[in-house]
Amino acid sequence: MTDPRNSLPLDLTFAAQTASVDAIQRAAYRFSDRFSCELIPGEDEHRCMLTAVGDDAVGDHVADFRTEVLDQALRERIRAETEPIRTMILAHAFSKTGVVDPPDPT
Amino acid sequence: MSPSKFKEPRTYQAESDDWQLLPFRFERMDGRVLVTNMVGEHLFLEDAEFERLADKSLPVDSPLVRRLRAKHLIRQPEERTPLSLLALKSRTRNRRLAESTGLHIFVVSLRCEHSCPYCQVSRQSQDRDRYDMSLETAERGLDMAFRSPSAQIKIEFQGGEPLLNFGLIEEVVCEAERRNSRFGKRLGFVIATNLALLSDEILEFCARHDIFISTSLDGPADLHNKNRPRPGRDSWERAVEGIRRVRETLGVDHVSALMTTTRASLDRVREIVDTYLELGLRGIFLRPLSPYGFAIKTKSYSAYEAERWLDFYREGLAYILELNRQGVDMTEYFSSVILKKMLTNTEPGYVDLMSPAGIGIGAIVYNYDGSVYASDEGRMLAEMGDETFRLGHLTTDTYEEIMTSEALLAPLEESFAPSAPMCSDCAFEPFCGSDPVYHYATSGDFLGRKPESDFCRRNMAIFRHLLDLYENDEAARQVFLGWAGR
Fold it and tell me: A88 and B83: CB-CB below 8 Å?
């Protein structure tokens, strides 16, 4: 039987400077089999209300969730930093296959 | 003094004091961090090493920088070679996409003399008119197959039990060979049969046309016969005798076997592997039970616990590795496919581990009644009344209409892993694939919610297990390198 304490929402906040809404959403998706996340974005901080969806208490996953948010913030930075080079590599890879649009003459 | 053939060591030193990140993904794994580059080459880093990579505090002359450069995870500014190599490897990994459909499955009869409880499709019927494919339908199937741009066409005959309509198989093989004299494609044939109806005449025809046999073998006699009831209760005896005769007549490499895992299999993986070995089969595919069709109806899927299957897989793999250490050549095929993706730039073309998914563009199914399905599993769903993956009909639809149908394009697009939530930043994604039919069958949409997906959970567990063995068990590493290189 589910412990009624598990169904109580748990409040977390993240400094907006260190974690974007996108990073929090991506992290929350990875945990969506364990808790749902209501995200309230703010200028200085983002607030998350976590509610268990299974038998586990939300509190059991908070530390992992915080780590995951940090990892997602890092992934976001790597993505942004390497996006132009990734596009260049893929364009180079498929430039002779006939599947890439020719450059616009204008 | 003659000039040296060797350059000064400083020639190979870093030209710059700086380095830049190349695209990579990471996952934390047992206290370390797995990092994969954009073509799936991997490296394990200690936490502290990863932090120094992430905050870019590594000196350019550190040994770790050399390891990271070797794996195309970083480069020096203006360095072009890593980009060219990544482009070349990306192109190699994706080269199958331009080829399009290579496997064409002809369901020549839905009839079968077996009555397996988990079988999704077969019918116990004598009604040939109703459940056998006609020659006209088969010829339209050949029209489709030869429209494929693929240089390699494999025609696989399935059922039911395809040998119940062997006359049609003979006609299709001869007609395909006749047509191919014009096309010059690499043409091959496979019959997926339980072998119970194998005759000398069938074997002679197979020998003349270089036809391969794929059969079913679930393990020891009692397990196999329990899974596969037929009149006489002798399915295993007939399969074993058939395997022996095929090996003798067509050659040892012309027969392979697939097993179906049931709850009764889960505690018997060593016996199952031993049965394969005793029959001279040097490979086994430790398969999970599919979630389609009658398997759902009979509750055999819901009773199936993903964790128990993983234990079954791990135990089987450990046993197969132990056999290899003793000098016995034995391969676990699912691991082998994944290792090929992990350790080489070859895309093995295994339909369930491709992205875009392999449905339609990797394999396509022509059903006995002329309906065209995106995959065999799509056909199984249709037998349960859900025609989501029906692409059209051989009589009424053209090749272009079928290959550009919304029923094919929507699941391909929606399930594409590199743009799927969670998959897009998963370090295991280069080893994995999209399976829109599985996710549709289990969760009702083509993509599925990955945190709740057994497909995702099972594959991640297998990737972690294989990487763990590869990194920490030298004997396993050598076996894995052998499997990946085949």
Answer: yes
Enter the tokens of residue B477: 């590493």
ipTM: 0.83
What is the sign of the dihedral through the CA atoms of B398, B356, B187 and B238? negative
Tell me, what CATH number does B387's domain have? 3.20.20.70
Please give the tally of structural domains in chain B.
3
The predicted-structure confidence for B228-238, as pLDDT tens digits, reads as follows 999 999 999 99
Whole-prediction pTM value?
Answer: 0.90
Summarised one tens digit per residue, pLDDT across range B398-433 is: 999 999 999 999 999 999 998 899 999 999 999 999
Q: Give the DSSP per-residue string, B115-134.
A: --TT-SS-B----HHHHBPP
Q: Is B23 on the interface with A (CB under 8 A)?
A: yes
Which of B406, B422, B449 is the last residue in one of the domains? B406
Residues B159 and B151: their CA atoms lie apart, in Å, by: 26
Do B382 and B418 have their domain in common? no
* DSSP assignments along B35-50, one per residue: EEETTS-EEEEEHHHH
Assigned token pair, B386:
């859900």
Residues of A in contact with B98 (CB under 8 A): 97, 99
pLDDT tens digits along B183-199: 999 999 999 999 999 99
- Please report, for residues B8, B19, B65, B71, the alpha-carbon distance to residue B11 in angstroms, rounded to integers and kept in the order given: 6, 18, 17, 21
Are both B289 and B341 inside the same structural domain?
yes
Q: Does B423 touch chain A (CB under 8 A)?
A: no
Q: Which of B375, B391, B406 is the last residue of a domain?
A: B406
**B83 vs A99: CB contact, 8 Å cut-off?**
no
Nearest to B387 by CA among B365, B414, B363, B361: B365
Whether the upstream peptide bond of residue B159 has omega within 30° of 0, thus cis, is no
How far, in Å, CA of A86 to CA of A82, rounded? 6
Residues B334 and B221 in one domain: yes
CB of B54 within 8 Å of a chain A CB? The answer is yes
B457 shares its domain with B346: no
Q: Do both B217 and B79 map to the same domain?
A: no
Please give, rounded to a whole number of angstroms, the shortest distance from the CA of B452 to a CA of chain A. Answer: 6
Gap between the Cα atoms of B424 and A72, Å rounded: 12
CB contact under 8 A, A86 and B21: no
Question: Residue A106: inside a domain, yes or no?
Answer: no
DSSP letter at A103? P
Burial of B76 (0-12, 13-18, 19+ CB in 10 A): middle
Range of the domain at B396: 100-406
Q: B79-112 pLDDT, tens per residue?
A: 899 999 999 999 999 888 878 899 999 999 999 9
Element (H, E) at B4: none
DSSP string spanning A43-94?
SSEEEEEEEESSSS-GGGGHHHHHHHHHHHHHHHHHHHHHHHHHHHHHHHHT
In the predicted model, is pLDDT for residue B133 greater than 80? yes
We report the CATH number of the domain holding residue A23 as 3.30.70
Which pairing describes strands B371-373 and B363-366: parallel, antiparallel, or unpaired? antiparallel
Closest residue in A to B77 (Cα) is A85
Q: Are residues B192 and B323 in the same domain?
A: yes
